[in-house]
Here is the input.
Amino acid sequence: MLGLLGQTGKLSRSEIAKLLSLGPATVTAQVRKLISDGYVRELAVDARSGAGRPRIPVELIPDAALVIGVSVTPTSLITVTMLIDGTILNARSHVFDPSQHVVEQFSGVVNDQRAALDHPERVIAVGISISGAVDQALSTVRISTTLNWQDFDLGPQLQRAVGLPVFVSNDLFALSTREVSFGFGHDRDDFLLLGLGYGVGLGIVNRRRVFSGSGGSSTEFGHMSVDINGPLCVCGNYGCLQVYAGLAELLQQAPGHPAAGNLAQLQARLEVDPDRELVEFMQEIGHRLGRSVGGIVNLLGIGTIIIAGETTCLWPAMSEGFNRGLHGTVLKFLHPVEVTVKTWTESEDAVGAAGLALHNAISLNVPLHARGRLPQTATE
Here is the structure.
């Protein structure tokens, strides 16, 4: 509802019910709660109402609350501050070392982000997105191979340090949650979100709900073995998608491209003077991804695919192979499959984390008059 009101402006309860395909009683109860919590306000009676019960429009109060989102890479923390209508106020990048004093580094950037605000007291929650398996109920990182973390209770520790609810999630789950509220979820009830970066993941949205498996393992698409005779993966299996399409692995294996090279250098080489061996290498990665995603499309019957992530700058070099693998795998009666590639920015994962924090803070009933109240689900 907040995403809808943030996108469209004022709406009556009946209009909300129609646009979200919800029952009138459900909408009335939820709008009443949002008004009570201070996120939404009623306006004057709509003059267009005509005969019958007058329509009383409601509108979002965008700056009634703020959330902070943090995304984590092996070298940096990216932070954003977001209003409840999805507007991003600022974004910053901070140097990060995942091997020492982690909670202190996180609390420092969160406190800096709050200090830069005119109304820091309006921050109601913090969201963190991480590549890896995350137990969201406990906000604990079960394992992150890119950060070399295992069984790390980051959420509870940071929550105590900053005095705010903290929600830690897998990056693909966070991005998918944001898309439901502020992106494709406005006109797509079901979609797959393929994330390509340091990790390879897949978010699953069915009937506007983001699927979450036991213990946070549902997005680990990168650890699907696609070649039993392939290289050893950090997870212990052989031939996983990760060893082919993970960003670090891709850079190390690219023909003629030294392991010390970076993503921008590889992108430039592909755009300016690609040789045949490199072109075939990128197409083969795309083909593996396309066949694997095609199998998921067949399994779930979801034919809308969003592709996001840092590696999407290389998508022109992978797309032909991906489409060939996808369409050669998907059952014919599920065609056409819709594929959308999102423009990637450095702060995209942090925006996803902020969207998740907003979703969870409201779901767990953190009203504006009780800022700082820590939900038990994030501490026990």
In short: Residues 369-380 have pLDDT under 50 and may be disordered.
